[in-house]
Amino acid sequence: NGLFTASSSVTGATGNVQPLPNYIQTINAALTDIDTSLKPIRSQVADATSSLISIRGSAQNIDASLKDTSASLVNTSGSLVNTSGTLIGASQSAATISTSLVDTSNVLLNILGLAQSIDGTLEAAEQIPSRGTALIPVLVQQANNILQPVQNDTSTINLQLAEVNRHLTNICTSPTLSLLPPLRCDPARP
Fold this sequence. Notes:
- There is one protein chain.
- The protein is an all-alpha fold.
- The chain is about 80% helix and about 0% strand.
């Protein structure tokens, strides 16, 4: 009864069934491919083993270094305690400096206030309405406007005086006046 059921099931699988020798050949080909793929793993395992041995040596060197470092860290710990004391002293000095800077800041604020007051006074002194320094160029220009005609007049006077001086020199050096007593008309004498 069981064979009949199996026989009817096998009869319906005709297109999908391979003969056993073909199926074994397919499996053997797959196993050959797997074997080919696994062969390089042996050398890779050997490389990994030598790398692990090298790592072990490095780790042993690191372990020895860490033992030396441990003693050094104990010394460093002591130094840090000393440094902590020094930093506390520096902190107290910084607090003193901070107080001094606050005092200096107050002095500088007072100086700034005085400088601003002086600046305001100077600005007020410079403005024309206060008759300050800004008025000086205006007054100088007015004086120049008044003095320009005077200068024009004096330049012609200077020319006239030079001409008068020339005439007087001619008179003093004339042969007629040479008959006068000595030193009465000397052009070199003031």
